[in-house]
Amino acid sequence: MMAWLTEHTLVYGSLGVLAVLLLPALEAALPLVGALMPGQTAVLMGGVLAWHGQVTVVAALLTAVAGAVAGNLIGYAVGRRWNTRVLRRIPEGGRWQRYTERALGLIERRGGAAVFVGRFTAVLRTLVPALCGATRMPLRRYLGWSLVSSAVWAPAFVLIGYAMGPAGPG
To answer: How many domains does the chain have?
Structure first.
């Protein structure tokens, strides 16, 4: 599996770094898109690209952090602007309702720390930003937690991708 991902990542070369920026941003900004296109995979690809010399490690790291923070802020703004509409659009009785209830419970119990936990959990990564905005979490608190969580999450997965880089064609 990793060899396939590495091979296909290298086909795009340094253009792949755009995915490292855009997919984490889209994942957090638009929950439906985030469910379909995992940003974490793109961040791993950034590490693979760095290992193969297509981009620098610093470029992959900074791009991944920027994408994560930008997506979080856009998701927060969407939730803040369309708070009741965001919550009403969640289908009742399905798994998305359970995920949303779980995310809301986490935000209620942990406050800003929910942003940190959410960054490392696939489904929560797509829901927490909009729900923090919808629940009117103060922007300053949200932004602080967003920066901290992105600054830990992005390098972790870029470096995992970097370590996995030798698994593919060299």
So the answer is: 1
What lies within 8 Å, CB to CB, of 78 at 6+ separation is: 29, 30, 86, 129, 130, 133
Quick one: which of 90, 110, 111 has its CA closest to 101? 90
Whole-number Å distance between alpha carbons of 113 and 109: 9
What is the tens place of the pLDDT at every residue in 88-128? 666 666 676 777 778 888 888 888 889 999 899 888 888 88
Domain that holds residue 111: 2-167
Distance of alpha carbon 40 from alpha carbon 37, whole angstroms? 9
C-alpha closest to that of 52 among 116, 5, 119? 5
Rounded to two decimals, what is the model's pTM?
A: 0.83
What residue type is 163 in one-letter code?
Answer: A
CA distance 37 to 16: 14
